[in-house]
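Backbone-to-sequence.
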């Protein structure tokens, strides 16, 4: 009987192995959009490979649109990775009151999951990063600028998303950065009409931080839900009050 032909397996190219490693670093967030890669000499030393193999891997990354190279300026992770929402769609949603509440509901799910997995999988370095971002919110409030504060709040939640070690959660949050920051800023602007509730929001956020850094997933999920549910409830009440006021003014 004829013997079956043995297929010869091609050895994987070194540049392809490096390519996969670099892609994984982008997926897991070790390399972020806009971040500059180390110089070729240092990167080759880090991967323990030759510079030609490394250069070939970077060329393949560039062909995929994952990095961009600037003549004499180095290689950068593409910022386009964050642009999953087009400007027209962003403008449309940002100016829609209903969309703002839809986004707040979406945050219930995303931030709840991120908090749960951050408490479950986060490392001590993750927790230190989350704590640092939480502390920066207090510093940003001294600026008396809602946009700066909104950016700080977003960075706090992004740190939680990174600590979840879930690539989908992290990159979804990153790709929606402009929309999420705008939502937080609009919420802060409305909530400013009730300055008494800001201390409560601070307490809810502190409870969330404590639940995550103490490694309690269910408690973290609950803390995230209670925090956003409180904000949603206050916003709904203020919106109704504004509507009643507008109707009264029209009648007058």
């Amino acid at each position: 009987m004829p013997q079956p032909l043995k297929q010869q397996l091609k050895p994987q190219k070194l540049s392809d192995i490096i390519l996969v490693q670099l892609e994984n670093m982008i997926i897991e967030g070790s390399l972020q959009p806009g971040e500059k890669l180390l110089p070729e000499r240092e990167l080759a030393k880090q991967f323990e490979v030759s510079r030609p193999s490394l250069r070939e891997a970077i060329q393949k990354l560039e062909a995929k649109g994952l990095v961009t190279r600037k003549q004499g300026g180095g290689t950068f992770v593409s910022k386009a990775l964050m642009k999953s929402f087009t400007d027209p769609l962003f403008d449309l949603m940002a100016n829609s009151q209903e969309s703002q509440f839809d986004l707040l509901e979406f945050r219930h799910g995303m931030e709840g999951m991120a908090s749960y997995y951050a408490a479950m999988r986060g490392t001590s370095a993750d927790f230190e990063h989350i704590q640092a971002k939480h502390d920066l919110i207090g510093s940003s409030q001294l600026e008396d600028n809602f946009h700066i504060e909104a950016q700080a709040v977003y960075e706090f939640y992004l740190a939680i998303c990174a600590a979840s070690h879930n690539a989908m959660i992290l990159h979804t949050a990153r790709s929606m950065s402009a929309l999420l920051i705008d939502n937080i800023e609009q919420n802060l602007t409305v909530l400013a009409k009730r300055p008494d509730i800001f201390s409560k929001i601070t307490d809810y956020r502190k409870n969330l931080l404590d639940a995550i850094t103490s490694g309690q997933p269910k408690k973290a999920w609950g803390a995230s839900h209670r925090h956003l549910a409180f904000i949603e409830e206050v916003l709904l009440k203020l919106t109704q009050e504004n509507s009643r006021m507008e109707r009264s003014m029209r009648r007058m």
